[in-house]
Amino acid sequence: MAEKPPGRLDDEDLLGSVHRIGQGSKGSQMRCGIVRTPANYVERKFVTPQYAVVFLPRSSGWYTDHRGREYRMEAGCLFQRFPSRPHQIHIEKQSMHCFIGVPCQVFELFSLTGLTHPERPVLPIGGGEELVCRFVRIREELRAQPEEGLARMLLRMQEFIAELLERGRTKGSGASEPIATAMQLLNEDLARRLHLPDVARRVNMSYSLFRKRFLERAGTSPGDYRIRRRIERAMALLTKETLLVKEIAAQLGYPDEYAFSAQFKKVAGVSPTVFRQRHG
Asked: Is 76 among the domain residues?
């Protein structure tokens, strides 16, 4: 049997969740855990009365808010489940995610102080396995806590979430922030036609410098990056939805299904129809 790399966490040892005060995964007021997600995992119109944050240590995907706006999620991102707001997530690869949930009043407090906002559901926080271990510690503290200690435990969970949100707010404050902002712009509203020099202006860079810095950071040009995001979104729709190819093309802003199919095949190596037959 092959040994795991030194320092590598064993996923099977990490899995598990704890729910306190209330019944069920959505009804409990305090919850924390780590769960496995299969490839192409989709949650549609998910609603919870509580406030929760979810950390993706390794996988990537898409977050769609209650208005249909899409946000790209990369490994190391935190996404938020706002109280009573339906949303959808799509996780692209088999992996695991860490979550922590608290009463909706915590969200109200964080909103009043400006720590969070529904317009910023996805935050890059980094962290990796070190952060996963902290979720494990919170979970086990919650499990061991007697009833009379839950109020103090709630404060501990609230402090941890606040730290994660603050981390997301300051993560991009360095020199790479303009490119991180540009990536987010290129990930959003995939049906809209974007003029790349306008994106460069929005991050206060000349287009030539913007393209150079973007290529250094992402390993691809801004234009190719957005094309790839559109095709990844199309793959998700082809895998999980019953939309016609022409409807997907229209949803992603292509003039017709032929232009869409040509670009899809160029990126994916097969036509949309063949991709659906193999993965649908």
From this structure: yes
